[in-house]
Specification:
This protein is α+β, with helices and mostly antiparallel strands. Helices cover 34% and strands 19% of the residues.
Length: 855
């Protein structure tokens, strides 16, 4: 049968133009290695000439030396696809040695850049390789394994043993992949070659049959010892086959010189009882902790993120990341230890091993530093969203489109409760989102969509989403649905923690915090939620340590729901989007399984819709500016960039956002007895006096019952603090509170006066190309009007246009052209946890004047 391109290792009846089957001379030379014609044909060895040889191994003839020779294919057991080709050259290069002699070099060649593989003769079946009751002989070189494969079948209907080989005595270790160096550069990842995992080693008798000179060659002896240690670590019982060098250097020479019966006698004479005793002694000498550390270093790469040790576990196909001092990584090491030793490591050994691995990650040279994210990440102007599937894939989003990537450049960690996201699909509409929620007001739907878009970014600031409504308005269902769209979790709804430490621990393990059925929020939790929304941290004493601190830092999207609006304190309300859900009639109620089925059907398109919005947002973010900066300016800028003119009409978000904030401010004032009394006092006309005088006046307005309650300020100092807290919402409603000192005694005074309410309308502009002049801040209460030219050369139409989207996954390829503007790094730097910190927009030049900053 003639050789074809689809069967490069076929055996042709006649010589082809560049290659042919083995010649009679080839068979004669192979017979000298005790490889007969049948065995050679079964191994699919063939001859290649000087033209095909270089093509086969991807190399050029060097200095006129020929690459003609024998091509040896590599296969997996039971497969017919060629994995690798090794070329045994007829005329290797000769190297001059210092003593005047020569030695052959480059006798065997493989394609460049390939890692080492184990050679398994093609006649082996997967069952034979996996059967631990069949002994195994481990040798060096393909021809020796082929000769041993013939011996294993010689005059026997049953396979005596499995013969395998590696290209060189040290090649059971080598480059197993690529990784990132400490500075982001690509480096070879060293370790035990993955092919060892193809074979069942546990409780298997393994005989190492290297060349006869291994007993006197120090380098071969070292490689032999390391291999024995590795195979014993995998659970094998290992012995070494020795013979006289006079009888033949390799096992194939020994077979040719002494015959099969002699070699079978040598193999039969191996003292396996002594091998078992030696193996057990070696295992007993190994400290459990040392074995665990060896397993970890052999199967993972360590790095640090802010002095926290992590491990990358990479098998060449899937790369996952775990914290070294985590339950998941400990469980993985326990499993690998059990597979190796068939017993459990002690708790003390595991503790010592984990401590050693953390030390290696933090102090090994060079120290590898990487950032680890939860669910969402950002790198080089691109967003990444962890799909949460078993393949550790992610969604990559940039200004040109979104796509599924199998090995994202960023690292994600996963908590035990994380669930996979739905596979996103194109073609979603805002109506798909509305169909999942009990939301009737289009403004509320716009705000919820904007919150979801913002929550798909790794950093904020994020507004809190507060869902309220009477019993039976599906608040918990809405909160559960929203989280499942962007950060599904096994426990989607939780109760508020009892202390701030637990709150930050929850934030470190989840991207979205979702607290259910709140009846009220204490002041400390309200302040903590404010810090989480805009970026904050917590330091506390490390457990079981006297002078060590544990630091937590987080900025997370938060969902709250309750019958009453939970965001009643001014600082929390100023960071919140409040959505009131309508009650559901008894006739309109649906069972839980129906709602879950509808969510599963709509979630892919809703996620695809959000990803499309992110693409637009990344493309248009730098062109968005405001005449007057709104509260949560970063969030507002991103929402306008993502949705205006596409998900909703131009200006739709700011109209909904300002309307929602006005309602929230009014509710804050109505729910605060001091704020309501101050507003009534201001309506009576301008007022000036000390805090004591104002407290006396407000007590009369509020009445005895209110003034005697625990929530009413008991001292002038307490009143001053309350006034500073309610000043922003009162100013929004047209009541101005001013603190100053008067007279030679510098008496602290308070002035109260009514003034026009702050302007609600803030018009965003998709481009600054039609603007000119410098930035001219003008005082207007405590806000400012800004007009600035960011890009005078930009075209108004080009800057405001919605870019075409390209969406694809592993099975879809599109030919969309990239957008004209290149992606830029995201501007999501946290600005601190002060009340007015996010009033500064990174898209403007410079912060607002100090006298206009909110207190």
């Amino acid at each position: 049968m003639a050789t074809t391109p689809h069967d490069p290792f076929g055996t042709p009846a006649q010589p082809a133009s560049h290659s042919a089957g083995l010649t009679d001379e080839d068979y004669e030379r192979l017979a000298e290695r005790w490889i007969d014609r049948e065995t050679a044909d079964a191994a699919r060895i063939r001859r290649v000439d000087a033209t095909e040889g270089p093509q086969l191994v991807g190399r050029r003839d060097r200095h006129g030396s020929s690459l003609a020779g024998l091509a040896i294919p590599y296969f997996r057991p039971g497969e017919t696809t060629v994995r690798e080709i090794r070329l045994r050259r007829d005329s290797p290069d000769l190297e001059q040695l210092p003593d005047g002699s020569t030695r052959e070099t480059a006798k065997y060649l493989s394609p460049p850049g390939r890692g080492s593989l184990i050679y398994l003769p093609p006649r082996l079946t997967p069952e034979q390789v996996a059967d631990k009751d069949v002994p195994l002989i481990f040798t060096e070189g393909e021809f020796k394994a082929i000769a041993l494969d013939r011996l294993a079948r010689h005059n026997s209907d049953k396979l005596r043993f499995v013969a395998i080989a590696i290209p060189g005595v040290c090649n059971f270790r080598g480059t197993i992949g690529k990784t990132e160096g400490p500075n982001g550069e690509r480096q070879d990842l060293k370790g035990t070659i993955p092919d060892l995992d193809l074979i069942t080693w546990e409780r298997r008798h393994v005989l190492i049959a290297y060349d006869a000179d291994s007993a006197t060659n120090p380098s071969v002896q070292t490689a032999e010892k390391v291999l024995i240690k590795e195979l014993r670590r995998r659970g094998a019982t290992v012995a070494v086959l020795r013979w006289s060098l006079d009888d033949g250097k390799g096992i194939d020479d020994l077979l040719a010189n002494k015959g099969p019966d002699y070699v079978l006698g040598l193999i039969k004479g191996v003292d396996w009882d002594e091998a078992i005793r030696s193996t057990e002694k070696d295992r007993q000498r190994q400290n459990q902790a040392d074995v665990v550390v060896g397993i970890a270093l052999g199967s993972s790469q360590l790095f640090v993120d802010d002095d926290v040790a992590f491990a990358d576990i990479d098998n060449g196909v899937v790369r996952c990341t775990m914290k070294v001092n985590s339950k998941s990584y400990r469980s993985l090491l326990r499993h690998k230890y059990y597979l190796t030793r068939r017993k459990c490591p002690s708790a003390q050994a595991m503790t010592a091993a984990i401590a050693t691995l953390e030390a290696n990650a933090r102090f090994a040279e060079p120290i590898v530093r990487r950032k680890v994210f939860t669910r969402t990440a950002e790198a080089e102007g691109k967003l990444y969203v962890d799909l949460g599937d078993d393949g550790w894939r992610a969604i990559e989003v940039d200004s040109r489109g979104w796509r599924i990537v199998s090995r994202p450049p960023v690292r994600f960690q996963r908590s035990p409760g994380m669930l996979p996201l739905p596979m996103p699909a194109a073609g979603g509409k805002l109506d798909d989102l509305q169909g999942l929620l009990n939301v009737r007001d289009s403004s509320d739907l716009i705000l919820i969509a904007a919150w979801l878009l913002a929550a798909l970014r790794p950093t904020g600031p994020f507004p809190l989403l507060s869902l309220s409504g009477e019993q039976g308005s599906a608040k918990s269902t809405a909160a559960r649905t929203l989280r499942s769209l962007i950060d599904p979790n096994r426990v989607p709804l939780r109760t508020l923690p009892r202390n701030e430490r637990d709150l930050y621990i929850a934030a470190s393990h989840s991207h979205v915090l979702n607290y259910d059925n709140l009846s009220g929020i204490s002041p400390w939790i309200s302040d903590a939620l404010c810090r989480l929304a805009t970026g904050g941290g917590l330091t506390t004493r490390t457990l079981y340590e006297n002078d060590e601190e544990t630091m937590f830092e987080a900025m997370k999207p938060i969902i709250l729901n309750g019958i009453e609006d939970s965001a009643t304190r001014p600082d929390l309300a100023d960071r919140s989007i409040v959505v009131m859900l309508e009650p559901i009639l008894e006739a309109d109620r649906k069972p839980e399984n129906y709602l879950q089925a509808r969510l599963e059907a709509a979630a892919p398109k809703v996620l695809g819709l959000l990803l499309d919005g992110l693409v637009r947002g990344l493309h248009r973010l730098d062109s968005v500016q405001f005449e007057r900066l709104p509260r949560m300016a970063d969030f507002a800028s991103f929402a306008v960039a993502c949705g205006d003119g596409s998900l909703w009409s131009d200006g739709g978000f700011m109209a909904a956002y300002e309307g929602n904030r006005s309602k929230a401010v009014a509710e804050v004032v109505e729910s605060d007895m001091v704020a309501e009394a101050v507003r009534q006092l201001a309506q009576q006309g301008p007022w000036k006096g000390t805090a004591s005088e104002m407290l006396e006046r407000l007590c009369k307005i509020a009445g005895d019952k209110t003034a005697n309650s625990k929530k009413w300020p008991a001292t002038p100092r307490a009143l001053s603090g309350r006034l500073r807290r309610v000043a922003p919402p009162l100013r929004h409603l047209g009541v101005n509170i001013e603190f100053f000192k008067e007279g030679h005694t510098r008496t602290r005074m308070i002035r109260l006066a009514a003034r026009p309410p702050e302007t609600e309308s803030i018009s965003p502009s998709a481009s600054s190309a039609n603007r000119s002049g410098n930035c001219e801040p003008k005082a207007y209460g405590r806000t400012q009007r800004l007009t600035q030219n960011h890009d005078e050369e930009a075209s108004p139409s080009a800057a405001s246009a919605v870019p075409p989207l390209r969406t694809q996954n592993d099975s879809t390829q599109t030919g969309a052209q990239p957008l004209p503007s290149a992606s830029r790094p995201l501007k999501t730097s946290p600005l601190g946890d002060a009340d007015g910190a996010d009033a500064y927009s990174p898209y403007k030049s410079g912060p607002p004047p100090d006298d206009e900053m909110e207190i």
